[in-house]
Structure to design on (455 residues):
């Protein structure tokens, strides 16, 4: 009976979500931006760039039998950060949170936090291994977890162990980020040589401890100020970004990808170019897309001009910016995505779901993008100043409409599952890139299977 009631509740939720998104009360101006022609081009790009043709030999197949083609994993990386690992206040909530990550879950990629402020609270005391204060038991006993200095900053080693066990591709974030630095470093805020010595030692600490376990890193995060020539976060810029990339390239294995990560359209591309022109090893272009306030979110939903973090969200403008970044001929990581619900009612949730669906479809269709990382998975778990309603789930891990939209795209619409007829000893199909299991019946009436990769 309980299973039946659960099934009815799921059907009701899914029906309600579909109805809300169909009715979503989003503006005609927004719909005009995302018109049939725009969506047709997105569909064409998805078909062209995200799928590939496959030919599979079936050993001793019984002619005329049914062949099951089942996609197991994506080659494309869909991710989120793992900053709230074991911090949600109960074992049940933590279990639901962790279940979102894995090869066959919503996210096959995770950003692992290495914020210097929490990584080295005291000079020379590296917080890499998990401590008692990182345990679920510690967090389960707190009524106001956000007041803890290591809230959203779990020790990285046990997060890395979790990801490796579940086959999750990791991204390290960040090595150098001047917005959140240890108090002991801040006394040198205006002493660039002393800062650079500290940066060099910190980079060495990261490369020594993490080694090659993490495949890509934001070496320097948000180092270009929106106002050219101005110091970011009150620090003298100097050339620390370039020097940090040179050191990271020398100390990491060559297979480790080094990312640049920022967003401001007018200043970011020329900043990237200046680094590359001088020989900095930048393997991946990271692009943040954050909407951090309700007014900008409502502008986006109204089809009006909105420039959160200096970047327009109109589809033509997003494509224009991606074309500009493609001049660097490097893969693009949509590295930090914030799309909040501009309120708590059904209409606000429907707006969040609709904008997310449209943007993910555009991003997934773009050939240079290989990874998309949603930022705050759970409402009320963001950094100070970030919107509280930007999660896929409520604070009690109840799925919001935006979760169902994203899950439908990743695990249904963008996964290939077919049943074919074996007319000969081989089958052909076109499917989304990733790993597959092919199952058939042989001439002895026994089930056979093999795994392949569609690239």
């Amino acid at each position: 009976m309980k299973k039946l009631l659960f099934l009815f509740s799921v059907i009701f939720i899914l029906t309600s979500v579909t109805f809300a998104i169909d009715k979503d009360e989003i503006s005609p101006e927004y719909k005009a931006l995302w018109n049939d022609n725009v969506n047709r081009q997105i569909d064409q790009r998805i078909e062209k760039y995200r799928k590939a043709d496959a030919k599979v030999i079936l050993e001793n197949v019984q002619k005329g039998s049914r062949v099951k083609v089942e996609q197991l994993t994506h080659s494309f990386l869909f991710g989120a950060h793992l900053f709230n690992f074991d911090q949600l206040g109960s074992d049940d909530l933590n279990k639901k949170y962790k279940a979102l990550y894995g090869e066959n879950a919503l996210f096959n990629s995770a950003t692992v936090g290495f914020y210097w402020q929490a990584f080295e609270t005291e000079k020379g005391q590296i917080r890499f291994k998990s401590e008692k204060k990182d345990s679920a038991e510690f967090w389960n006993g707190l009524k106001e977890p956000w007041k803890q200095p290591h809230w959203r900053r779990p020790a990285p080693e046990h997060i890395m162990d979790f990801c490796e066990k579940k086959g999750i591709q990791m991204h390290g974030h960040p090595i150098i980020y001047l917005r959140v630095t240890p108090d002991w470093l801040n006394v040198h805020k205006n002493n660039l040589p002393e800062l650079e010595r500290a940066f060099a030692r910190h980079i060495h600490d990261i490369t020594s401890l993490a080694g090659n376990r993490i495949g890509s890193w934001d070496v320097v995060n948000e180092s270009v100020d929106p106002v050219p020539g101005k110091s970011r976060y009150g620090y003298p810029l100097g050339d620390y970004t370039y020097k940090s990339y040179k050191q990271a390239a020398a100390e990491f294995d060559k297979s480790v990808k080094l990312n640049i990560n920022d967003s401001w359209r007018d200043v970011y591309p020329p900043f990237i170019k200046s680094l590359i022109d001088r020989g900095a090893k930048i393997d991946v272009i990271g692009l943040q897309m954050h909407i951090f306030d309700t007014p900008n979110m409502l502008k986006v939903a109204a089809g009006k001009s909105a420039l959160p973090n200096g970047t327009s969200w109109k589809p033509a403008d997003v494509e224009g910016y991606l074309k500009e970044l493609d001049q660097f001929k490097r893969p693009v990581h949509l590295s930090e995505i914030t799309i909040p619900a501009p309120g708590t009612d059904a209409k606000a949730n429907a707006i969040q779901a609709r904008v997310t669906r449209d943007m993910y479809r555009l991003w997934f269709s773009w050939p240079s993008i290989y990874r998309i990382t949603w930022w705050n998975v759970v409402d009320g778990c963001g950094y100070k100043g970030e919107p509280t309603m930007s999660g896929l789930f409520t604070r009690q891990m109840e799925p919001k409409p935006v979760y169902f939209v994203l899950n439908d795209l990743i695990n249904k619409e963008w996964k290939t599952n077919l049943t074919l007829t074996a007319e000969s000893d081989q089958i052909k199909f076109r499917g989304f890139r990733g790993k597959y299991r092919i199952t058939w019946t042989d001439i002895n009436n026994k089930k056979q299977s093999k795994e392949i990769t569609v690239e």
Remarks:
- The longest helix spans residues 2-23.
- The two ends are 44 Å apart (CA to CA).
- Confidence is low (pLDDT under 50) at residues 1-22.
- The chain is about 35% helix and 20% strand.
